[in-house]
Amino acid sequence: MNTVIPAGTPVVFVNAFPVDRAQWEPLIAVLAEAHPDLGDIITFDVPGIGDMPLVDEEPTLELIADGAVAAMREVTGHDAAIWIGCSMGGYIAMAIAERDADAVAGLGLLGTRSTADDDAGVAKRLSVASDLEGKPGASDPHGMAEGLVGTQGSERAALVDYVAENIARHAGDGIAWGQRAMAVRPDRTEVLRGLDVPAVVIRGERDAVVSREDALTMASALGVELVELAGVGHLSALEDPAAVARALAPLFAATRRKASGS
């Protein structure tokens, strides 16, 4: 777990799948300049990805959620944080909200959904997991990256290459673990409906993974307006960190006001 920029309410970024915490570096650089009053900024990897070894426990997002809250509290001394999750990271953030709402001071959901996979989606995840177990890594990292990046034009090739190189770092067992964990997640739309914290829902208009309807479902449950970012896809914080930083600014401000009681 990395921490940067001490002070105030912590901000925890939770990764998309199957990339490691490096995906947040461009956004953190923007935030460090634009919001010097933010608390600890924390990133971490999930089991089998990046620097995090696999665990012996059965794959569940709840396992990650409980560990993330415990680590955040130990590292920062704060009881609650602003949790910002992209894709799988959003699933984890919602699991935290369900299991320990007191740990959530604010919530940012990027390129994710609150609903569970349908039967076909579960079957596909489990099939991919079975195919990758024991393998050195994903068979086609570049193909996977193509579907995650929505940016077009001259910047696209470099972004796709960057994401593909990140995916290629991770062993098949780690990717399989994540697929199995996501396959068993429940619908958490009602969890969002029951939250009373500042929140933002962000979707890249070119997101090929999460539909606008998925994002609107979460925004409606949280009572907020959906923020759609032009020209970007599933990894919006990597593709256009400045736009994501602007979209997150009201979340930071609202969390600060609520914490101060104003």
How many domains?
Answer: 1
Approximate helicity band: 40-55%
Strand residue content: 5-15%
Q: Looking across the biggest beta sheet, what order are the strands in?
A: 1-3-2-4-5-6-7
Q: How many strand segments? A: 7
| Sequence stretches where pLDDT stays below 50 over 5 or more residues | none
Q: Provide the succession of SSEs.
A: EEHEHEHEHHHHHEHEHH
Q: Give the helix tally.
A: 11
**Computed CA radius of gyration, to the nearest angstrom:** 17 Å
Q: How would you describe what is shown here?
A:
- There is one protein chain.
- The chain is built from eleven helices and seven strands.
- Helix 2 (61-76) packs across helix 3 and helix 5 packs across helix 6.
- The chain has 262 residues and is an alpha/beta fold.
- The protein has helices at residues 25-34, 61-76, 88-99, 119-132, 141-148, 156-168, 172-183, 189-193, 212-222, 236-239, 241-260, and strands at residues 2-4, 11-14, 41-44, 81-86, 104-110, 199-204, 226-229.
- Strand 6, helix 9 and strand 7 form a beta-alpha-beta unit.
- The chain has a single domain (2-115, 187-260), classed as Alpha/Beta hydrolase fold, catalytic domain (Rossmann fold, 3-Layer(aba) Sandwich).
Output the keywords.
262 residues, alpha/beta, Rossmann fold, 7-stranded mixed beta sheet, 11 helices
Q: In brief, what are we looking at here?
A:
With 262 residues, the protein is an alpha/beta fold.
Write the layout of secondary structure elements.
Layout: E1 2-4, E2 11-14, H1 25-34, E3 41-44, H2 61-76, E4 81-86, H3 88-99, E5 104-110, H4 119-132, H5 141-148, H6 156-168, H7 172-183, H8 189-193, E6 199-204, H9 212-222, E7 226-229, H10 236-239, H11 241-260
Parallel strand pairs: 2-3, 2-4, 4-5, 5-6, 6-7
Antiparallel strand pairs: 1-3
